[in-house]
Amino acid sequence: MSSAFPAMKILQPLSTTRSPEKPLFDLLKSPSSFLGSASKLRFNAQKPSPSSSYSSSCHRPSTIVAVSDVVKEKKTLKSNSSLSNLLITKEEGLELYEDMVLGRAFEDMCAQMYYRGKMFGFVHLYNGQEAVSTGFIKLLKQEDYVCSTYRDHVHALSKGVPARAVMSELFGKTTGCCRGQGGSMHMFSKEHNLLGGFAFIGEGIPVATGAAFTSKYRREVLKEAGCDSVTLAFFGDGTCNNGQFFECLNMAALWKLPIVFVVENNLWAIGMSHLRATSDPEIWKKGPAFGMPGVHVDGMDVLKVREVAKEAIARARRGEGPTLVECETYRFRGHSLADPDELRDPGELLNFVILVYFVFPFL
């Protein structure tokens, strides 16, 4: 972990938070507070012997269990440094709350219009992940860039694109932000430096890397005064197995580009569990492999996300290079509105909703 994140002592990687005195086998035998098919798939991948204890020899640390158990434990660990960094003004708190409520209400209305037959095509909603978009984008300046995915409505709203323009785009109207030509997966706004959503996973990362290179070139070669713009590249956990991801991490680290790679790890790539699609489920570890900081954060907590985002964006603006941030979150709907969401265990979603709305707020 880089020294640029002093407040991240309470946000250590999930695999290091379990007590070494508690054997992994005991954890697997006891019913986890995180129910669902993902954890079942995880446990079937490797079952240690009863005598084995948790150590670095374990091939896959239990990340899914940590969604509820470890993140909950972290919320009870308070330090002076973390508390000071989490302090916000009343105005800032209202801004964060309003942005998340706008995103949720907007997506819920999209679902209503889609099921009434008023909206067509593939529509991917952001319900449950609002803290990531709000925590990062509301810290940006007007001249900073955002590159999104096919799940891009809320990113556009957080960047300042009017809700009317985004909704009009979804209806295919000429008053939309892309004059009705882009639709749900291709939101774009030159005025707000929203570089677009991309229907194919990973295709936005090279675009974001190019935007970051442009900022560096303008500042260091063209000597443009005050050019310190930063780029945010949003993508999901499934994208992290694609070639563009690794190529752009390498280039960004090599040239110290002012970019933050934001992984919205909602634990599912369409209907494929994250734990079945990657050899190491802890995505943040890929950052240090390329010489950049890698940080894991609870993506359901907007203040924690904002805390990490502030450090990462500041690093990029100072010219210290990129950061890889893994935000562990969860989508409350299917992959798209055409997805009946039958591959996830209903108990998984229910348990997550209970934790988010009835447990975490009181810690």
TrEMBL record:
It comes from the Eukaryota. InterPro entries: DH_E1, PDH_E1_Alpha_Subunit, Pyrv_DH_E1_asu_subgrp-y, THDP-binding. This is Pyruvate dehydrogenase E1 component subunit alpha. It catalyses: N(6)-[(R)-lipoyl]-L-lysyl-[protein] + pyruvate + H(+) = N(6)-[(R)-S(8)-acetyldihydrolipoyl]-L-lysyl-[protein] + CO2. It holds the Pfam family E1_dh. GO terms for biological process: pyruvate decarboxylation to acetyl-CoA. The keyword Oxidoreductase applies. GO terms for molecular function: pyruvate dehydrogenase (acetyl-transferring) activity. The keyword Oxidoreductase applies. Tetramer of 2 alpha and 2 beta subunits. It comes from Nelumbo nucifera (Sacred lotus). The pyruvate dehydrogenase complex catalyzes the overall conversion of pyruvate to acetyl-CoA and CO(2). It contains multiple copies of three enzymatic components: pyruvate dehydrogenase (E1), dihydrolipoamide acetyltransferase (E2) and lipoamide dehydrogenase (E3). SUPFAM superfamilies: Thiamin diphosphate-binding fold (THDP-binding). It is an enzyme of class 1 (oxidoreductase). Residues 99-342 form the Dehydrogenase E1 component domain. Its cofactor is thiamine diphosphate. Its EC number is 1.2.4.1. Keywords: Oxidoreductase, Pyruvate, Thiamine pyrophosphate.
